[in-house]
């Protein structure tokens, strides 16, 4: 006996919006994929497929509607890619926060339908190329949010009390956790001079100690957090240039 024939992957295309159904009538799948196109919501039949393309002008609305319904099938076990007109693509991108397998425009799908069907049959995710930047931005945002804060960088233009440049320089070093002696060494001041500037910061800002100065700067938005993926910090030489 020869080797057993490889079981075909099953992919279903669903379009329940009558005015768009004609776009999909000529769609053909590769020979190694068992494919069908339907315009109804026959859930038991749809559940026999491994992956589904679902057309909707409003994918987010459709998902919300389906979540309110009772289903006999666990659709989370299926790969589902939504198709939507190109003008709705970016507005529909929030569905990528849900457990779907992708999002493509109607126009791109019709151009590359066979390839798209094959990709969904073989791979876990399919995304419109123009949306890659959104996905990359979200990954970066989450990475930044989870990364520890490396330092707080003073944004001088946000400071809303009258401080001299020397005091702003010292405030930055206080934010960096430097001691009085370290600040004096970094800026070539005497310890006495640094103490005088710190006392003036406390008085002008209206706090009771140097810790209060730092807390006030952070709470009032005078700083921008720099996280561990950034450089460890601005060298003291850069602060000296502002003196």
TrEMBL record:
One of its GO terms (molecular function) is DNA binding. Gene3D superfamilies: Winged helix-like DNA-binding domain superfamily/Winged helix DNA-binding domain (1.10.10.10). The keyword Mitochondrion does not apply. GO terms for biological process: regulation of DNA-templated transcription. Pfam families: GerE. The keyword Nucleotide-binding does not apply. Keywords: DNA-binding, Transcription, Transcription regulation. Residues 156-221 form the HTH luxR-type domain. PANTHER family: TRANSCRIPTIONAL REGULATORY PROTEIN NARL-RELATED, TWO-COMPONENT RESPONSE REGULATOR. This is HTH luxR-type domain-containing protein. It comes from Alkalicoccus urumqiensis.
